[in-house]
Write a structure and sequence with these properties.
The complex is a heterodimer of chains A (76) and B (202).
Chain A (H helix, E strand, L loop, with lengths): L2 H11 L7 H12 L1 H19 L7 H13 L4
Chain B lengths: L2 H18 L3 H23 L2 H18 L9 H16 L5 H6 L20 H4 L3 H13 L2 H12 L4 H8 L3 H29 L2
Classes of the chains: A mainly alpha (76), B mainly alpha (202).
């Protein structure tokens, strides 16, 4: 496996079964290639950043407006 | 299906059956159970409180009117995720997104790139910066909605590939391809900032 092939599958490797032949080939390539290791690390970091990006809670006033809208929609 | 999930589904099925018979309390119980999930999913897709609230209202009104047609074969949460996704897709700017996104099958990585960028800061540190949070918002908003939905379901909502495929109505292979491109797009969009930021924060 070369860098080009590895790049194509690095993002997917985050989901691959750890012992699949393709995953083993990617891991082998990563052991030998610092560029690809760095790339994989940056992709993982990207996902982590978005996971940790704050998301507001539903406010009491938004919830109240939701219930009013549903009430106005009449009986189901 | 795990025991907990199976219990959840049975519990939902009972509430849905009652709601279908016109029991408004059962309906509201379902709304109460999923309102936070729906709101947060909508927010993650549009990054805006007003739009998220509007999408949440439209979603539950659709559920209010459409519960009778809900087959019950899938989970209620799957159905709700689908309504939110469809709502956001209808509002999006139409572009030929697949052509644009194909370039992310081979992410840009120049030789020796390893030395310049700094992806070493911890998320906790970097997310303290308002400017950086804005950049993350901007990057995800630039990601076409079809791809944003898959990234959000898989990576942020931790839905499986199979469930994401069901929600979006595409094959599991297509889910994997969209996820791969979405991650590459976001990574490449943040990359210049990460390299710049790393040196300025030393």
């Amino acid at each position: 496996m070369n860098c080009r092939q590895a790049h194509k599958h690095i993002c997917e490797s985050l989901d691959e079964k750890i012992d699949s032949p393709r995953c083993r080939a990617i891991k082998k390539h990563l052991e030998e290639c610092p560029n690809c290791r760095h790339y994989l690390k940056s992709v993982k970091k990207t996902v982590k950043l978005y996971k940790k990006l704050p998301c507001p809670d539903l406010s009491a006033s938004s919830r109240k407006r939701l219930y009013s809208a549903l009430k106005a929609d009449g009986p189901s | 299906m795990t025991a907990k999930r199976s219990f959840e589904k049975n519990n939902d099925d009972q509430l849905i059956a009652r709601a279908r018979r016109g029991d408004e309390r059962a309906f509201l119980e379902l709304v109460r159970k999923y309102d936070e999930t729906v709101y947060k999913f909508a927010f993650k897709l549009c990054r805006d409180k007003t739009s998220a609230e509007e999408t949440m209202q439209d979603t539950f009104i659709s559920m209010h009117r459409g519960l009778k047609s809900f087959s019950g074969r899938s989970k209620l949460s799957t159905w709700l995720y689908r309504i939110v996704s469809n709502h956001c897709l209808m509002k999006r700017r139409r572009r030929n997104v697949d052509t644009i996104m194909e370039s992310y099958d081979e992410p840009a990585l120049a030789a020796g790139d390893e030395k310049t960028p700094r992806w070493n800061e911890t998320p906790a540190d970097v997310l303290l910066k308002r400017e950086f949070r804005k950049l993350l918002d901007k990057a995800i908003l630039a990601l076409p909605m079809e791809y944003r939905i898959v990234f959000t379901l898989r990576d942020l909502e931790d839905r499986s590939t199979a469930e994401t495929a069901k929600i979006v109505g595409i094959s599991q292979e297509a889910v994997k391809s969209r996820l791969r491109r979405a991650r590459a797009f976001l990574r490449d969009t943040l990359h210049p900032y990460m390299s710049h930021q790393g040196t300025s924060l030393q």
